Structures are given as structure tokens and as C-alpha cells.
Amino acid sequence: MSQQELRVRFAPSPTGPFHIGGARSALFNWLLAKKYGGKLVLRIEDTDRERSSKESEENIKEALKWLGITWDEGVDVEGPYGPYRQTERLDIYRRYTKQLLDDGKAYNCYCTEEELETERQAQMAKGETPCYSGRCRHLTDADQDRLTAEGRTSVVRFEVPRNKPIVFTDLVRGTVSFDSNGVGDFVIVKSDGIPVYNYAVVIDDALMHITHVIRAEEHLSNTPRQILLYEALGFGLPKFGHISLILGKDRTKMSKRHGATSVEQYRKLGYLPEAIDNFLALLGWAPGGEEEIFSLDELVEQFSMDRVAKNPAVFDIDKLNWINAHYTKQADPELITDLAIPHLKAAGYLDEVSPEQRKWLLKVVAVLQEYISYAAQIVDHIDIFFNDNVEFETEEAREIMHDADIPNVMDAFRTKLNAMDELDGPSVKAMLKSIIKELKLGGKKVFMPIRIAITGKMHGPDLDKIIPLIGRERVLARVDTTLSKL
Ligand code: GLU
């Protein structure tokens, strides 16, 4: 590895749905790797054995691939510093634990949960911040044998050096300082021999030659512990960059209350990966100019850590919808149709889709994709193509149908529609124009009642687009139905 090579990592814990914040961290790391010709490592941090699952790991990898975030080393692709799944690295951690114990930088602690709790309560009663007292720091071998004989199990604690300022330059937050006296001797290996996150992450980042640790701000408070471990283990420090928390629009931490939080949920709703990437990039990074639509290639070109903001990023769903609408308009109707079909089935519009029905549906979707933010919303607009029992959407729509010109407009429309050979966009457009001309009415006076007669609504896609798709028979039947409801 050359001195200059940038090596970043994304290190998810596979403990549940893949959160949008995780996807943002992955994207920022990927952008940096691509921009500087570096490498992105995907490491699975599965030391929390109860909460980790293979299914969640698969889900994360699947989502990353969907977003176009590829990794150069890591699980599945492997590489020179593997294995890349923490539970497969336990021997490695054990070696370093032995080193720390031998060097007197860590010690076995035999305190029970109850003893620790009593200690915490006593400290809090005195108004102190709870912090492990270091009671087991100086146990002799004989003490340890006795405690083991009592049936106690032990954890390994790191002996935090006293009176040591910890100062580092964060790529996003600037100078950050902590006092080691605020950190008690913390557990690095649990009684079952499994290392905790703060410990495993240091060994892995060091052995995997990670140069830049870019992660979410919630890990900022872990960084001093990690720096102390880097030093104790004799490893050089990487650069750290902590990207801002993602808040909901009400400025509280983004959670399920704010709507969908997992990548999977957005994917199922028919959001497009280009749009999610584009949106995630803007969650904390500010481009130089006014432009807000960026392809992945453009993001790689423009992304830089010095435009990553310190202040919290606000998850604005309206903005995501706006961005997704942009990509949806440009998308192949085949794709939007595929994404919409499960929702149309769930809403009861479709059952099995025959090849013929699909051909029709593709044209319907091509019309509607102008109007939606994401594919699932097709359901909210498609009624006009399915429902022949037209209902007036509003009282205003019904009122319009009482206009004095209506009988003439409807007669002309029925006659002309009946007389048409071929029903396509241009011929329907010409037919509607001829009504305007012959009745000497303004366009709105003709288009609006015809639209209401066919759909019950005052707004929607152009008539020359929808009439051929609904078809002559059904349009004529709808006009009769609507007029009979007046
Ligand atoms: N496994 C940690 C998490 O998912 C990784 C944190 C880090 O990037 O250091 O939050």
C-alpha cells in the first residue's frame, strides 16, 4: 500500500433494518474512495451476537448494491486484511488482549453487576458522575484465583491513563478535546470473550490500514476511548470525521416517528436509487452552487469533506420527493411499471397482469409518471383509468356540469367521438379543437366539462392522453353515467 492511498471503511452492525443514516455514511465513504482513487472496505461488526443476524447483513449488502455503493475489500469480495466479519476475527483480538494484559494496560475485572450497581448508586448519591472505581486494577494472581474459585467470571477492562488530555482534529468538527479523567476504566472484552465495539473497531481499523474514519456524529463520544486504545496498542491514528446527526423536520433525532427510516422502506415505495443517493449526499454536504440534482459521477467529482457541515442535517421528505420526482419523470416506464405493480395489486386494481394488460399499463404509467413523486403514488392517480362509475370529486365539479353550454358540448363530444376511426393522441386533440371551434367556446369551457364527465375531477392528465387509454366505449358510457347523476 502506498503512503498516499486513501482507505476508508463502512462498518455496519447488522442488527436490524438498514437505516438511511447508515446509507449516508456508506455513501460519503464511497464518494471519498472514488474521488481520491482510494479503497472502500466493508466490514461487518457483528460482535453483538444477540442482535446481529445474517439476514440483516444480507439486507445491508443488497441495499448498498442497489444504491451503487460497491466495496473494494470486505465481506464477500475479501482482500489482504480479512476476514472482514468481526466474529471471524476473535483470535486476532485475543492476541492484542494478551498484549495489553502483559503490558499492564488492561486487567481482569471480577466485579459483579450488583457490585457495580451499588458503586454507581453510591457515586450518584454523592453527586459524582458514575465511573468505574478501578477496584480490580491491582489484583494479584492469588486474588484472581480466589475470585475465580468463588465462581465469578471476569471481563477485561482497559486501564485509562489519568490526567491525559485527548485532543484531535476532526475533519468536520475541527479541534475536539476530551479529558481522560472523564472516562472510567472501560470493558474491552466481555466475560464471554467477545470484544466490545470500541475495542474491536480500533484493532480492525488499524490492521486494515484505514486512513480516514468517517462516521456518524453519534460515535464522536467513542473516539476518545478509541484514541486511548490506539495509543496503548502502539498503532498510528487515522484521521476522524464525524458527520452530523440527521434530524427530522421538527429538529428531533430522526426516528420512526418521522416516517420511513430504512432504505428498504423507500425502495419498496418505488424510490429510485439515483434519487436516494442524490438526497443522501445533500444530507450534510453542501454543493458549491445552486444546483441540487447530481448524478453519482457528478457527486464523485464535486464531493469534498470541507463542504460537509457541522450543523445537523434535516431530513426533508418534501425535498426527497422533489428529487425522486425528477428521476421518476426521466425513468423508463417499464421500470416505474414494475415498481408500481405490487402497489396496484395491493390496492386491488390488478391481479395477474396479462401481456396485453401490461402493454396498456405501460402507457398509463407513462402518462402518470409526470404526476408522482414515487411509484407507489401511482395508486393515488390511477383511479381515472379503472373506475367507470364516475363520482364528482367536489361540489364545484358538479356545479360546472350545470352550465348552460353543457348539453351542446356533450352532444358534440359524443357525436365526434363516435365518428372517429382511430383513437390516438393527435386525433383526439384535433377532435377536441374542432368542438371549440364549432361551438365558439373558450378551451376551458370544453375541456373542463369533458374532463369532469370522464373522471369526475377538475384536474389531471391531458384529455388526449387519457381518452385513448380509457377507450371509446368506456368514455361514452362514463359520460352517460355522469350526466345521469346531475
Ligand atoms: N458498527 C458501528 C455502527 O454501526 C460502526 C461505527 C464506526 O463506523 O466506527 O454504528
Which descriptors would you attach to this protein?
486 residues; mainly alpha; Rossmann fold; Glutamyl-tRNA Synthetase, domain 3; three-stranded parallel sheet; three-stranded antiparallel sheet; 21 helices; 12 strands; binds glutamic acid; Glu/Gln-tRNA-synth; ligase
Describe this structure in words.
This protein is mainly α. It has four domains: 7-75 and 246-314, HUPs (Rossmann fold), CATH 3.40.50.620; 89-243, Alpha-Beta Complex (Glutamyl-tRNA Synthetase, domain 3); 331-370, no CATH class; 395-484, Arc Repressor Mutant, subunit A. Helices cover 47% and strands 10% of the residues. It is built from 21 helices and twelve strands. A three-stranded parallel sheet has the order 1-2-3. Strands 4-5-8 form a three-stranded antiparallel sheet. Strand 1, helix 1 (20-35) and strand 2 form a beta-alpha-beta unit. Helix 1 (20-35) crosses helix 10 (296-302) and helix 12 crosses helix 13 (355-368). The longest helix has 16 residues, at 20-35. It is elongated. 33% of the residues are buried. The mean pLDDT is 96. The structure holds glutamic acid. Residues 11-13, 45, 201, 215, 219 line the site of glutamic acid. GO terms for molecular function: ATP binding; glutamate-tRNA ligase activity; tRNA binding; zinc ion binding. Its main location: mitochondrion. It is an enzyme of class 6 (ligase). Keywords: Aminoacyl-tRNA synthetase, ATP-binding, Cytoplasm, Ligase, Nucleotide-binding, Protein biosynthesis. InterPro entries: aa-tRNA-synth_I_cd-bd, aa-tRNA-synth_I_codon-bd_sub2, aa-tRNA-synth_I_CS, aa_tRNA-synth_I_cd-bd_sf, Glu-tRNA-ligase_bac/mito, Glu/Gln-tRNA-synth, Glu/Gln-tRNA-synth_Ib_cat-dom, GluQ/Sye.
